[in-house]
Amino acid sequence: MSNRREFIGTGLTALAGLTLLPAVNSFANPGNAYKSFAKAKPRLRFALASDIHYGQQGTPYPENTANMIRWLNADHAKNHLDMVIVNGDLVHNRPDLLPEIKAKYLDKLDVPYHTIPGNHDFADTAIWKNTFSYEDKYTVEHGDIAFILANTADNKGTYVCPDNAFIEASLDKFATRKIVFVVLHIPPVKWLKGEGFLDCPDTVELLHSYPNVKAAFHGHDHLLDGVRYTGNKFPHFFDSHIGGDWGTDYKGYRIVEIDDNYQIFTYQVNASQNPVLNSNKL
């Protein structure tokens, strides 16, 4: 396997300009347990997982996918999840496997789930709608909290900027909502030279132009599990990976909680029984 992050250089010096939000609790509780950071039941609590790469030869993809379902169902049983978002690369260059991963694994989640394509899903609107009964760009509403999800690749795996007309129309529609989140598999900005992300300044401008848009969530880079910023500290959160043959040593997912005062808490879960990582408060 080639090194997907050679451009970073040595050590962390290339990341020196990036900052993290203040940590709420950087580590898990004794016994690697974790719990909701909200004092009362959150107004909304959801998980984001990405990069399953189901079907990638040479990887234990059935085990990885089954683990994800088990981890998320266990999280729901302990702390309650309102939904799960699977943010791209469900399969590995095999769109014919999308019905299989849906029926055999995703439909076994104990909570509602939503998906969006990644570049390895080789999917367009027709493929996604045929599998999941909704298109590759759509919105989700939970009271005063809304989500905008959009595809960032075509059915050949080529990176493409999301449909900005759709995003803008959705942002206008949700202009009076308290909180809006945008979910894109591939980030719309390259922070580092040579980085395998998109360059979509119009998308970034949209994210910055609506004060109720609080964060964007991305997958794609399996080595990233924290936060990066654009503009005046607009956060873009990553969630590591579930499968594939490269990335962080652990497999994990991200939790987001919104309390009754619309405060947003987010932390990364190392689902392989290691501590909760890089917990943040927005």
UniProtKB/TrEMBL annotation:
Protein name per Swiss-Prot or TrEMBL: Metallophosphoesterase
Calcineurin-like phosphoesterase domain: residues covered: 44-222
GO molecular function, one term: hydrolase activity
Domain of life according to the entry: Bacteria
One family name in Pfam for this protein: Metallophos
